[in-house]
UniProtKB/TrEMBL annotation:
It comes from Trichococcus shcherbakoviae subsp. psychrophilus. InterPro entries: WH-like_DNA-bd_sf. Gene3D superfamilies: Winged helix-like DNA-binding domain superfamily/Winged helix DNA-binding domain (1.10.10.10). This is Helix-turn-helix domain-containing protein. Pfam families: HTH_36.
């Protein structure tokens, strides 16, 4: 039984994503890289087209920006993640769009 101070939240209300087992079982990926992948999958699953900043993602995952960049780089090197740079109307760089790849090279 819940006491009067307990709040119930809908953990799916902010969106959720699907994480392929092949990503989770890739022993060449660190636990940090897998967490980053799952984070992006949750954002994409929520229908987000814009992502939080690196600072916000780092805070959410409780890791420093350098650590985040290091493990994100591994996802890119393995082909699980690509980054598309969007431009604003004035033609200047605007935001990074993270794209989870459905197919990656084996090896």
């Amino acid at each position: 039984m819940m006491d009067k101070t307990t709040q119930v939240i809908d953990v799916l209300s902010m969106g959720y994503g699907t994480v392929p087992r092949s990503v989770m079982s890739d022993r060449k990926l660190t636990v940090e890289a897998k967490a980053i992948y799952a984070y992006f999958a949750a954002c994409i699953g929520a229908g987000d087209t814009s992502f939080p900043t690196v600072g916000e993602i780092s805070k959410d995952l409780n890791m420093g920006k350098d650590r985040f960049q290091k493990h994100k780089k591994k996802l890119i090197e393995k082909g699980y993640l690509t980054i598309r740079k969007d431009t604003a109307a004035n033609g200047r760089y605007s935001t990074d769009v993270y794209v989870i790849q459905e197919r990656v090279a084996n090896g």
